[in-house]
């Protein structure tokens, strides 16, 4: 039985004034009496769920209410004799939870499961009985909401219950809808709990349930939960905010007059629209008071403009910005770019001639329904031929409504068997309140990767490849090479480069740039299992490594200057059959450059006369090549082997220390035949990790 249910009247300050949003408040004592009435006629609903039926029919006029009647009778008979701490019959709790969902527009299956959500946990009813009476869908949802026993899991019961619930939510988002409504009713009635228990429940609500409500788009539940948590965890700030609202209640409210001006403007423009005043909830008032300091009457609410079509939203925006003075910094278009939780609206603000600033939200009526109810407004995601509930509870059914953040969560939780790790990482994951979408190289919709804002290429690698991302050596973002630590932006195209060497692994510094739990858990696990490699990645950068081979001379270049020594310029490393020019330098030597080399232009500009140079008939030549690569084990050996396979002699080689995992190699090579240079450069580029080879 839920321990979170207490007297609704014992803690009135923890219940913000919600009547201004028009939500029905339950008379629990009346419901308690109704729940204990004698049998009713089989052809009508019990009085106790009449209010649920009325709210349900408002959204679903053709709904079959007989299944709700059967679910209520089973729940009432099962919970009969059980009482809440406040003294009401326990059945009032599932009734209240079901009413919350009915007002949000939940479909019949959700309401049926809501009425039964505590029966398996607190009574003798079994999941098999629920399945037999109400089908697989209801059984699955009830099972998903049912808590794990503390006697079996000890202190891990709460995190493991949330893990179980989230996994079930991955298969059916209606599981979390019921959990959120359940927590809302328990928070409404939290008053007679000991203060320390109130605080513990409120903290879990703040850290886990409120972010989940936000991510599922259920704003109606999220805002009320925020106010209830605010009252418990921050009583002084809550009292101050309450006093601010009370202080302005006697003032002349400018919003009704502003709303009427907006109605007039839209009516004259021929735009059919409904203009409402939406009072801010307590937490919103607190935030805006911190942002703006002294509040004015127009700060305590916002205007909501509801229209019929998407195009009308932009029509309203144009009229507002034409007839009033817009506050440009306040404009946001969540219609063209919806939030990751389904939210769509236009946000703007304008200044009135009296000096007030009015914030305005513009949306269609369908957008408004989704903004308030989120996933609850989507109805049954399986009603149009989606996969059936799997016969095996361990088998996964992919929910067509599953958002990207939930898929990520379900992936990484499998790698966090420790309850404490799961619990702490879950809170950190849910604290990230924005999401971006990046695309793999092919750019198709199926190639989209959802990541939290601030994610790096490392996060994208683990999201795409899982543990195979241990071998990631670099990335191209929008076609340009970049380091793995680079942060990604919404809409970026990412090509991730993997090493062919199976022994490759992540560097310890990757943890500094990984934002997603999946990446951090995978990297940490690899480093723990390879302590020697982890130590190696944290050692200080080495000095450049140089390998010096044979002589340095002019190769087969001959200058038309008798007895003058000839050298090939290192800046452009000419080889046959390049067009070349020579210049006498200090000491009488002739340095040979390609004619396109910038040094040639500089020499001519200062009046230096070129010396004619030609190539000997021999085919061999010397060239300096630069190889740009991502750092990985054995790279130098692999490059040297590739050069040797082409029959080329290494005269000298220099390897610079890695910078952001990128390494530059400089090779001076003696080729037996200049014609083999293109093939040599191709062979070097084919080495895993090498992304460019060029002439020096």
Textual characterization of the structure:
The protein is an alpha+beta fold and 696 residues long. It has 26 helices and 21 strands. 41% of the residues lie in helices and 16% in strands. The strands form five sheets. Strands 1, 2, 3, 4, 5 and 6 form a six-stranded mixed sheet that branches. Strands 8-7-11-9-10 form a five-stranded mixed sheet. Strands 12-19-20-18-21 form a five-stranded antiparallel sheet, with helices on one face. A hairpin with a 5-residue loop joins strand 15 (580-584) and strand 16. The chain is elongated, with a radius of gyration of 35 Å. Mean pLDDT is 79; it is low at 1-43, 384-401 and 536-552.
- Structural class by SSE content: alpha+beta
Q: Low-confidence segments, ≥5 residues, pLDDT <50?
A: 1-43, 384-401, 536-552
The gross shape turns out to be elongated
Query: Please, what is the average pLDDT?
Result: 79
**Total beta strands:** 21
Helix count, DSSP H or I runs of 4 or more residues: 26
Task: Please summarize the sheet with the most strands.
Answer: 6 strands, mixed
Straight-line N-to-C gap: 76 Å
Strand content: 15-25%
| Oligomer classification | single chain
Helix content: 40-55%
As a whole number of angstroms, the C-alpha radius of gyration is 35 Å
């Amino acid at each position: 039985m839920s321990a979170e249910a207490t007297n609704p009247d014992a803690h009135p300050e923890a219940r913000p004034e919600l009547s201004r949003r028009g939500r029905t408040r339950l008379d629990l004592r009346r419901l308690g009496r109704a729940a204990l009435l004698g049998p009713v006629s089989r052809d009508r609903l019990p009085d106790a769920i009449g209010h649920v039926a009325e709210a349900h029919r408002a959204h679903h006029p053709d709904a079959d209410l007989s299944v709700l009647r059967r679910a209520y009778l089973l729940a009432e008979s099962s919970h009969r004799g059980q009482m809440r701490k406040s003294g009401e019959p326990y059945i009032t709790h599932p009734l209240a939870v079901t009413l919350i969902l009915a007002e949000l527009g939940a479909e019949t299956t959700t309401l049926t499961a809501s009425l039964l959500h505590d029966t398996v946990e607190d009574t003798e009813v079994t999941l098999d009985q629920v399945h037999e009476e109400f089908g697989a869908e209801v059984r699955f949802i009830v099972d998903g909401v049912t808590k794990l026993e503390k006697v079996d899991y000890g202190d891990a019961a709460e995190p493991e219950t949330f893990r179980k619930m989230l996994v079930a939510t991955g298969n059916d988002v209606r599981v979390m809808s019921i959990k959120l409504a359940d927590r809302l009713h328990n928070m409404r009635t939290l008053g007679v709990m000991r203060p320390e228990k109130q605080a513990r429940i409120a903290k879990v609500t703040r850290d886990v349930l409120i972010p989940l409500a936000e991510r599922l788009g259920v704003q109606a539940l999220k805002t009320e939960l925020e106010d209830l948590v605010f009252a418990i965890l921050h009583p002084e700030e809550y009292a101050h905010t309450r006093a601010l609202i009370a202080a302005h209640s006697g003032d002349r409210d400018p919003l009704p007059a502003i709303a009427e001006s907006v109605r007039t403007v839209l009516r004259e423009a021929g735009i059919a629209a409904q203009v409402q005043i939406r009072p801010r909830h307590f937490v919103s008032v607190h935030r805006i008071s911190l942002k703006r300091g002294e509040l004015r009457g127009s700060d305590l609410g916002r205007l909501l403009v509801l229209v019929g079509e998407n195009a009308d939203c932009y029509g309203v925006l144009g009229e507002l910005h034409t007839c009033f003075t817009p506050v440009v910094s306040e404009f946001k278009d969540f219609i063209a770019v919806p939030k990751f939780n389904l939210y769509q609206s236009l946000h703007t603000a304008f200044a009135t001639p009296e000096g007030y600033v009015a914030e305005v939200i513009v949306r269609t009526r369908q957008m408004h329904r989704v903004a308030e109810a989120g996933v609850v407004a989507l109805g049954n995601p399986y009603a149009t031929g989606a996969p059936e509930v799997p016969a095996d509870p361990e088998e996964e059914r992919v929910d067509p409504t599953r958002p990207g953040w939930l898929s990520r969560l379900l992936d990484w939780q499998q790698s966090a068997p420790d309850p404490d790790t799961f619990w702490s990482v879950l809170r950190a994951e849910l604290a990230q309140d924005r999401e971006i979408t990046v695309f793999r190289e092919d750019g198709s919709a199926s190639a989209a990767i959802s990541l939290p804002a601030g994610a790096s290429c490392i996060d994208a690698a683990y999201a795409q490849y899982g543990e195979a991302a241990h071998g990631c050596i670099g990335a191209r973002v929008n076609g340009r090479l970049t380091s793995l630590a680079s942060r990604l932006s919404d809409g970026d195209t990412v090509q991730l480069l993997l090493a062919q060497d199976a022994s490759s692994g992540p560097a310890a510094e990757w943890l500094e740039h990984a934002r997603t739990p999946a990446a951090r858990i995978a990297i940490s696990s690899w480093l723990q299992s390879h302590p020697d490699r982890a130590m190696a990645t944290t050692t200080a950068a080495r000095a450049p490594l140089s390998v010096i081979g044979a002589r340095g001379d002019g190769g087969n270049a001959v200058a038309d200057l008798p007895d003058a020594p000839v050298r090939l310029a290192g800046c452009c490393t000419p080889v046959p059959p390049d067009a070349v020019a020579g210049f006498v330098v200090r000491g009488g030597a002739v340095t040979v450059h390609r004619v396109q080399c910038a040094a040639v232009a500089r020499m001519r500009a200062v009046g230096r006369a070129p010396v004619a140079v030609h190539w000997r008939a021999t085919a061999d030549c010397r060239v300096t090549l630069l190889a740009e690569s991502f750092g990985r084990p054995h790279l130098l050996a692999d490059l040297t082997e590739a050069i040797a396979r082409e029959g080329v002699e290494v005269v000298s080689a220099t390897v610079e220390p890695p910078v952001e995992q990128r390494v530059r190699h400089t090779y001076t090579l003696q080729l037996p035949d200049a014609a083999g240079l293109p093939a040599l450069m191709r062979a070097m580029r084919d080495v895993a990790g090498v992304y460019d080879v060029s002439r020096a």
